[in-house]
Specification:
The chain contains nine helices and 14 strands. The chain is an alpha+beta fold and 253 residues long. Helix 6 crosses helix 8.
C-alpha cells in the first residue's frame, strides 16, 4: 500500500511504499544490494546516475521488469538515423550478425557495444534480475510532484539559477545534466524531514515512460531493512527483455 503526504517541515511531497516490490538488473559479481560509492574527485559526474550523492551509495529499482531492462539497455540503443555498423561488418566477413556479435564479444568490452544496437550473450550471463522489497519504514521524496518542485525552487533558487535552471520542471529532472540532478539530490539528502530523519531516497518517473523508479540512499538507517532476493538468470526468451529490446530496436543474443 502506498501512502503519500506533504512534509510539514520542508513542503516536499513524500511517498512511502512499505513492502512494495521493485526490480533492478545487477551484475552477478556484486552483492544483490550494492551500489558504487560516489566521489567527485575520483570520477566524472557524467558517469553518475540521476540522483547519486557524493559520499553515499544510491541503489535504483524500477516498478516493472521491462522498465529495469530499459534503464540499463538504453545506452546500447543506436542513435536515430544511424546505420547498423555490425550488419555491414558481418557481411564483409561472410558471417551472420549473430555469428559476428558472438565472435567479437570475445575481444570487445561492453563499452565497445554501446550505441551499436546489439548486445552479446555474455551481457546476459554476467547479470541477473533481482527482486527487491521496500522496507516497512522510511519516506521518499516524490520529486516530480508539483509540491516538491515548488519546495525545491524555494530552497534552491540561487543554486538552480547558477546551473542555468530558470524554472524547475520535469524536463530538467528527467534531463541528462547530472550537475543539476546530482545537486538537487545532494540537497534533499541533507534535509531533515518532519519525522526527525532524512529521506530514504527519491521516487521519480522513468524517462523511458510508463513506470516509476526509486533511488534509495543506502546510508539511511531504514535501508538496512531492504530485502533482496537472489538474482534470476536473464534468458533471451524473457518477455520483459524482449519488450524492452524491441522498443529500443536492440538485438539481444
Amino acid at each position: 500500500m502506498t501512502t503519500t503526504r506533504r512534509c510539514e517541515e520542508t513542503g516536499l511531497h513524500l511517498i512511502a511504499s512499505p513492502g512494495i516490490l521493485g526490480y533492478p538488473v545487477g551484475k552477478l559479481e556484486y552483492p544483490a544490494l550494492s551500489a558504487a560509492p560516489r566521489d567527485p574527485e575520483a570520477s566524472s559526474r557524467t558517469a553518475w546516475n540521476r540522483y547519486d550523492v557524493a559520499g553515499s551509495q544510491t541503489f535504483y529499482i524500477a516498478e516493472k521488469p521491462e522498465c529495469a531492462y530499459a534503464e540499463v539497455l538504453s545506452q546500447y540503443k543506436r542513435a536515430n538515423g544511424a546505420a547498423d555498423p555490425l550488419s555491414k561488418d558481418a557481411a564483409f566477413f561472410g558471417m551472420t550478425l549473430e555469428e559476428y556479435v558472438e565472435e567479437i564479444a570475445r575481444e570487445w568490452s561492453e563499452l565497445d557495444f554501446m550505441g551499436l544496437g546489439a548486445i552479446p550473450a555474455g551481457w546476459r550471463f554476467d547479470r541477473g534480475m533481482i527482486r527487491v522489497y521496500m522496507p516497512d519504514a522510511g519516506w521518499l521524496v516524490d520529486i516530480e510532484h508539483p509540491d516538491s518542485i515548488s519546495a525545491i525552487e524555494r530552497m534552491m533558487g540561487n543554486p538552480l539559477a547558477e546551473l542555468g535552471v530558470i524554472h524547475l520542471t520535469t524536463a530538467a529532472l528527467r534531463g541528462e545534466e547530472r550537475e543539476i540532478t546530482n545537486t538537487i539530490a545532494a540537497h534533499l539528502h541533507s534535509l531533515t524531514l518532519d519525522t526527525g530523519q532524512g529521506a530514504l531516497g527519491i521516487h521519480f518517473g522513468s524517462k523511458h515512460g510508463d513506470a516509476w523508479c526509486k533511488a534509495l540512499w543506502l546510508d539511511h538507517p531504514d535501508a538496512a531493512d531492504i530485502i533482496t532476493l537472489s538474482p534470476d538468470p536473464i534468458l533471451v526468451t524473457d518477455d520483459a527483455l524482449t519488450t524492452a529490446a524491441e522498443r529500443f530496436r536492440i538485438r539481444v543474443f
